[in-house]
Design brief:
With 170 residues, the protein is mostly helical. It has one domain. It has nine helices and three strands. Strands 1-3-2 form a three-stranded mixed β-sheet, with helices on one face. The longest helix is centred in the last third of the chain and has 22 residues. It is globular, with a radius of gyration of 16 Å. The two termini are 28 Å apart.
């Protein structure tokens, strides 16, 4: 099973792959606090837990939520694997093109196809890692499925892809 030593090794691997990589708590970042407020306003209060529950990657920095230290080692490991995909996306596309695509294309809310595609890639990696660690039954659990579908179709990511049946097929 995954323990703290596995998480530490994964972080070492990420640091090797991404020179300049850093972890920052969102609560220590004025920009992240401002983003949290902006998201709460833009989603009509639908996304009020950005600082508490969500981990965010921008460039070579992973911003950790307030509950990060309370997460299990397995959850942190799977999340870091998901975020490593975003680190690779930023490297592949560049900071500005990635940010513009993620935030604005084709629309910032409701039909954010680029955001959905970028997140699909990261969620797929998270599911692969979770399957390897927790088994096929875990990733097929209806609650896990509903949680992911809700991320794509709900306010957490600004209703990035509101077509529930398309997300469920994926």
């Amino acid at each position: 099973m995954i323990d703290e030593s596995h998480v530490a090794r994964l972080l070492d691997n990420i640091k090797t792959e991404f020179p300049g990589f850093r972890l920052v708590y969102k609560s220590d970042s004025a920009v992240q606090r401002a983003i949290g407020l902006a998201l709460a306003i833009l989603t009509g209060g639908g996304q009020r837990v950005y600082l508490e529950k969500y981990v965010t990657t921008i460039g070579r920095t992973i911003y950790l939520n307030r509950g990060w230290d309370a997460r299990t080692a397995v959850d942190r490991y799977v999340t870091l694997c998901h975020e490593r995909v975003h680190l690779r996306q930023f490297r592949r596309y560049g900071l500005v093109p990635m940010a513009l695509a993620y935030l604005l294309l084709p629309l910032p809310i409701g039909l954010a196809w680029c955001r959905a595609r970028l997140e699909w890639e990261a969620y797929a990696e998270g599911l692969r890692v979770a399957r390897d660690l927790l088994g096929e039954a875990h990733v097929r659990d209806p609650a896990v499925r509903a949680g992911i579908v809700g991320q794509f179709t709900g306010p957490a990511y600004g209703w990035m892809w509101p077509f529930r049946s398309a997300v469920e097929r994926w």
